[in-house]
Amino acid sequence: MVETRIFPTKDEGAAHAARIGAQAIRDAIAARGTARIVVATGASQFELLAHLVAAPGIAWNRVTAFHLDEYAGLPVTHPASFRAYLRERFLAQLPEKPVFHEVDGEAPDLAAECARLGALVRQGPIDVCFAGIGENAHLAFNDPPADFTTKEPYLVVTLDEACRRQQLGEGWFPSLEDVPTRAISMSVPQMMESRLLILVVPDARKAKAVADSLEGVVTPHTPASMIQRHPDCRLYLDPASASLLKNRPA
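Request: output the structure for the sequence above.
Response:
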């Protein structure tokens, strides 16, 4: 089930999404003494993370956080490094530090890195997964056609040109040739295992992907269409990203 909400601005949508996610984290800690989450990167997550780290009443030292994806071979010193992004915008902003499992895209053996992360993520349920939807409807770095049947929590994936052009357009790289062609990504089936899936998807450039994902058929050629089968998915849009929906929520 996808609960879709449209907010006047992307900041208002991100603020509401952070409140819902923060409450789920607090509830998990109250119930089990710990919470396990997944955090994402990219331009769509700026406001979400800013509101999440400011949320009151979260015992962050009782949280285990997983990193959604990372470019293969990109140094952590590079401006586009997702590890650097999360260290700056997430970890450095918290008064108490969670256990944080980074995706090491510089690992000499990427398959071994996927296995390491997979063993860690299988140790318990994921309470909240924060993510976005790409311009080509990718989830994490699962470009079309995505693997909907894998049993592996993390995969080495090839990035298609549409995905790489999105990264270029967002200003992370000086040229298309500089955008890596491979990455480590959490798989779509693993994302679907999260108890709560929160997707913040603003901007007009995401409008077609949003419409295809919500109102089209569920297909690997539209990776985010799989959210239609998630039992508790919350999708936060702005008027621009919702502009192509035929059935807009009231």
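Residues 10-32 form the longest helix (23 residues).
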